[in-house]
Amino acid sequence: MGVDALESRCAPHGVLVRDAEADLVMCHLGGRWCRSLGSHVRAHRMTTDEYRAAFGLFRSKALSSVEHSTARGARPAAAERVVAERRELAAGRATRTTAAEQRLSEALRARGYATTGRSLRALYLERPTSLEALAAELGVGRQVLRRALSAHAIPIRSTGLNTAQGRRARIALNIAEAAARVRTPDLFTWLATRRRAGWSLVRIAAALDRSVPWVRNRLADMEPVDDVAASGPRTARA
Fold this sequence. Notes:
Elements: H1 3-9, E1 18-19, E2 24-26, E3 33-34, H2 37-40, H3 48-54, H4 66-110, H5 116-125, H6 131-138, H7 142-151, H8 164-181, H9 187-196, H10 201-208, H11 212-221
Antiparallel strand pairs: 1-2, 2-3
């Protein structure tokens, strides 16, 4: 085929020929119609800049069909919308989480607890209740309560561990920890002595690093004694 015939099949120099109906562009080298010359010119071992320079096209000239160029131009805007939507969703989740945590704090304060950690230990560790039941009682979701328990290093019981024997073991462990905190071998004798000395439940709870309800329950476990000094070690009633 002659040079003139070949050139008649190709786009003229300095012009990007487009077929508006088919939404294609013509290659200056072989006359092939493409949606995008940017990828096609690699077959001719040229870069897009070399192609533009060789055929007199502006550097800013898009080497693609109208639809393809529009779609590529819309990608950054679409990506920005996706990012904005994700940020909005994340902000909404953060707002809902904050509101749920606030409801949890208010519910605990309404029950007479000063700190979240002590209240959760008293309500979850020392009572025969499940995480689901406690979440419903406090009016919060399970995930909110689970995060609060984890934040205060309170282990979450597996299904089947909330037995009477398990509750007694947890109470005994808490009694031993409280006794170690005030350096006494017998917590019940220590409690009886402080109550006779006029200590309030709040003061006792602060000394033991326990909640007021926990102290009240331990006092209820105690048998009446007339002579504290003569009383021996006691254990919590099951």
